[in-house]
Amino acid sequence: MARILKGLPVAQALTKELAARAGALTQSDVVPTLAIVRVGGREDDLSYERGAVKRCEAVGIATKKFVLASDCAQRDLIDVIGQVNADEGIHGCLMFRPLPAHLDEPAACAAISADKDVDCLTQGSLYGVFAQREMGFPPCTAEACIELLDHYGYELEGADVCVVGRSLVIGKPVSMMLQARNATVTMCHTRTRDLAAKCRAADILVVAAGHAGTIGADAVREGQVVVDVGINWDAAAGRLVGDVAFDEVEPLVAAITPVPGGVGSVTTAVLAKHVVQAAERKALHCGKC
């Protein structure tokens, strides 16, 4: 039976550490603050917003909400982003995506200050991830994978890691972050030839393909650690499932993350981490910390 790598203990440990750091900033008259920019009221956005606000409260981060109508004009969204950029008391900006189809999402993302981009929406943040520079921040979910592996004590240096998925949200950035930790990374996707064999060769398997059941029993082996980043709705089962066929894979591997309750549980804690880091950077620049 595999070790189940739950996200809650990881998030709790991060929250405790971040609360101490946020408290130190507050004593220096710097209150870490997150701006939440939301267009419309999609239920998945509202659900994540509730979780993010709750996590921020636990850490000691203030939140400011900027909510626009779903039919707002592009200039209204850009004006709100400009307000966030100009507000010296705001350290991080979270803008929910996807935006409504009539809005220019790339232009909106580009308008966010890289210093306040706490979820890798800007090219500056992506450059920081790929060039290993302290510019912007990595995607929260990608970093949550690393936090989870670190928390449970899995050594990344020298490990053979297979990443299934090539998006700019998870697959590509998490591959770069793993390489920065001296892992040897093989990047794959759903059209990779003999995907199962490449997955079986890895010590650690990170799956972010975006399709339920992408990885089954034929793609794993004894001793592996499997990190399932996928979140899919299984209508037949009436529940959320990952990209890994959990019931098939769990008896065969050494450790696996559940869905739900795995990587996703760590994401808001990483978001809070980025806000605290942004506040620390600004305080250091201003000589307040």
Share of helix, binned: 40-55%
Number of strands: 11
What is the CATH superfamily of the largest domain?
A: NAD(P)-binding Rossmann-like Domain
Instruction: Tell me the overall shape.
Output: globular
Structural class: alpha/beta
Descriptive report:
The protein has 2 domains: 100 residues, Leucine Dehydrogenase, chain A, domain 1 (Rossmann fold); 121 residues, NAD(P)-binding Rossmann-like Domain (Rossmann fold, 3-Layer(aba) Sandwich). It has 289 residues and is α/β, with parallel strands linked by helices. It is built from 10 helices and 11 strands.
Descriptive labels:
2 domains, 10 helices, six-stranded parallel β-sheet, about 290 residues, Rossmann fold, alpha/beta, 11 strands, three-stranded parallel β-sheet
Describe the SSE topology:
Elements: E1 3-4, H1 8-27, E2 33-39, H2 43-59, E3 62-68, H3 74-86, E4 92-95, H4 105-111, H5 123-131, H6 140-151, E5 160-164, H7 171-180, E6 184-188, H8 195-200, E7 204-207, E8 225-228, E9 232-234, E10 239-241, H9 246-249, E11 255-256, H10 264-286
Parallel strand pairs: 1-11, 2-3, 2-4, 5-6, 5-7, 7-8, 8-11
Antiparallel strand pairs: 9-10
Short description:
The chain has ten helices and eleven strands. The chain is of the alpha/beta class and about 290 residues long.
